[in-house]
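Researcher: We plan to redesign the surface later, but first we want a full-length starting point. Tokens attached.
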């Protein structure tokens, strides 16, 4: 049964958001017109990135914990990751918008964007010799910059709250993927291509990778919703 571990983690991550997608207050399923194009656009970019890093030996997958079905050198479960994780995290984003009426981070969200952009650019350039660190930090700074140019600080405070809450399941799921509570990691990392700083068993770069991935989804998601609202107003 060990070869079902990665798949089982993805199914577990999907189970509650999927079960609650038709809940009458959040009405998550009704936002599918914006959600799925946003996820697919992000997945196109990140799967190409994932494939390249896998081929370059930046990371890889333990055959002990996967089904052994590959496409573009990536296991089936890794493809599922780029669908399941954003689906679950945008669900958190929508739930928090509904239940937390005040945008708590709005007063400082633009300042935080400037700080994150500058920090990631500096760290990415300083550590550009480490492929995961350099490319990851620079890419995430570009995503934050794009979000800032498109929306200013309208959505970032809400996104940041959702991102911080999503760190709870992130540490649980990614912890297992990187070797917490099991004999070997499901996903291994070449420490020559990262800073070697771990949060438990998780490379610190993963938290930045997750931020960039989810913000890319939310940016496209909110832009599609905005366009539909504008079209409704014109009709």
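Model: Full-length starting sequence:
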């Amino acid at each position: 049964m060990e070869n079902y571990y990665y798949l089982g983690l993805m199914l577990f991550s999907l189970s509650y958001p999927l079960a609650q997608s038709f809940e009458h207050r959040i009405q998550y399923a009704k936002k599918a017109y914006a959600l799925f194009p946003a996820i697919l656009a992000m997945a196109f970019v990140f799967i190409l990135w994932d494939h390249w890093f896998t081929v370059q030996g930046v990371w890889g997958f333990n055959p002990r914990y996967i089904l052994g079905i590959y496409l573009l050198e990536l296991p089936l479960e890794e493809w599922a990751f780029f669908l399941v994780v954003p689906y679950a995290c945008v669900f958190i984003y929508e739930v928090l918008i509904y239940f937390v009426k005040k945008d708590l981070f709005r007063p400082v969200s633009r300042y935080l964007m400037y700080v994150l952009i500058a920090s990631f650019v500096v760290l990415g350039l300083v550590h550009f010799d480490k492929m995961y660190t350099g490319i990851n930090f620079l890419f995430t700074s570009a995503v934050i910059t794009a979000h800032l140019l498109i929306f200013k600080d309208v959505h970032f405070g809400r996104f940041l709250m959702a991102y911080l809450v999503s760190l709870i399941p992130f540490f649980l799921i990614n912890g297992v993927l990187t070797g917490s509570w099991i004999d070997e990691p499901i996903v291994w990392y070449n420490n020559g291509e990262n800073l070697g700083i771990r949060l438990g068993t998780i490379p610190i770069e993963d938290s930045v990778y997750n931020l960039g991935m989810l913000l890319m989804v939310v940016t496209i998601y909110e832009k599609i919703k905005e366009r539909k609202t504008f079209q409704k107003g014109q009709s």
